Amino acid sequence: MTRNGDAAVDGRVRRGERNRDAIVDALLELLAEGVPKPPVREIAARAGVSVRSVFQHFDDLETLYSALVDRQLGRVRELATPIDAGVPFAARLDRYVLTRSDIYEHVTPVRRATLLAAAASPTLQRGLADAARDHARDVTAVFKPELAAFDHPGDTRAALIVATAWETWDGLRRTQRVSVTAARRVITSIVSAVLAPPAKQ
Prior knowledge:
mainly alpha
């Protein structure tokens, strides 16, 4: 193949990648705007492509949802910077709550719409399960030294996961309508109480 031919192929590949990214971005934007099940024609219009182009890049909506889940989990993992378990507890707690609150504020609009759409989507259900596993793993690693002090660390771990879960954050922000700063204080207080040194018998 000539150099011009190679350039043409490369151009088509790059254009295809841009279109694919635009389609995923469009779906994310629509979900963030509170549209739980955007019609394909609306996704295509937002992405600036044809409906046919959507299905050239994705076999069906589940395939598109899979790309969406990968994109969203990737963003969350970028924001969830590692926290050294050797750092003093107070500093670890402050950093962890700050990091989780930033993540939750970022993902909340899409998360709410995803929960509505997940009932009919095995892919979105798996994505939510993956996010829950990531959260449980991270919070366990960050507070491993404190958990080791309990006779029943599994119970304490479960309480810690609930205290720092997105559902708890969303309840504070949406149901109780507290500010981000106040929600951080509440979560910090709950985690501190959960991880208070167990009373000696």
